[in-house]
Each structure stands twice: as C-alpha cells, then as structure tokens.
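I hope you will forgive my troubling you with a question about protein structure. Could you please explain, in whatever detail you think fit, how the structure tokens follow from the sequence? Thank you for your consideration; the sequence and its tokens are set out here.
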Amino acid sequence: LSSNEHAHLIASMLDDAICMIELQLDEIEARIREMIIMRHPEEALSWLSLPGVGIMTAASCIAYAGDMERFDGPKQLRNYVGLLPRISQSGERCSIYGVNFFGCKPIRRHIMQAAWTASMNRTPNTLTRAWNSYAERGKKGQRAAVAIANKLLTIGYFLVRNKSLYNGFGNYEYLEQKLKREKITALRTCMYQMQKRTERLA
C-alpha cells in the first residue's frame, strides 16, 4: 500500500470505531434514562431543574445519594462527595486547606462539570449571579467552580428532600426544554405536580 492508501485505511478504521462507540454511548444513555431517570422521576426532575445538570449528573446523584434520607444536611452530602475544605487541627492551631477530593468520585466529577456548564448559562439565575460575584472578589477558575458545585449540591439536597424544583429562572421553561432535549418528555406530568408543590413551598 502507498502512504496515501495506508492513511485512508487507518482513517476508515478509526471512523468505524468512532461510529461503534457512539452507538454504544447512545445505548448506555438509553439504559440510564430507563433504569435510573424514569424509575426515580421526582429525584431526577429535582436535579435536572438545576442549570448545568444533565442526565449523567442527575443519574450519578440518584445512584449514589438517593433520596437524601441518609444525610443529616447538605454539609454531610458535600462531605460525602468530597468537596469540603481539608481542616488540620494541632493544639489551638487550625489550618484550612483546599478541598480534599476524597469521596464519591462519580458525583464529584459530574457535579464539577455541571458547575462549569452552569457558569456559562445565558439566562440569569442565582447560580450565574453567584459565579459573577465570585469573579468580582477574585475567586475564579477552579475555585469558583468548586464553590458553585457546592451550591448545586446544597440546593439539590433541599430540592430532593422537598420533592420540589429549582425556580431560580422565574419559570420552568428551562426544564421543559431540557426534558425535550434529553428525550424524557414523559416526565412532564410529574413535573407539573412538582411545580405546584414548589409554588406552595415558596
């Protein structure tokens, strides 16, 4: 084979491999929707109503944190995920370091990605305002992302416990669009019921 023919063959093989991987990913996402999201609609909607949170983040939070019954509060959830600062005490001296990154890796990985995604949301909400506030105070990049991830966990904790939705956008159009994009519009009926519950709690 000439060099061009060899390059074409390699490219064709890689293209076939990529197509196969994409098909596998589609199958995995379909199983996640069926086995986790659709079987836990209220928890899924609570998480999905948050900016930046998609199917994978919601699924990991449901799979590892469940309905939050085993956590006494959001701080315990944040500690479980591994996003609380490390504290070292020696006598009367107390030193606070960066986050320890010990904890539930699946949730931590996805909630951090959700934080970065939430920071880029073009529709103003409480989280984008918090991100801008951090930036004004010099807390940028990874430090800001960790802070937003902790806010996502805290808000998510209370949403799941109360079976309610995030209303930081002022309406639920964002969630409607997400359900359509993620191919889970079957959850709309449950969403409307949770919307009424959220409005009663407000």
Notes: The first helix runs from residue 3 to 37.
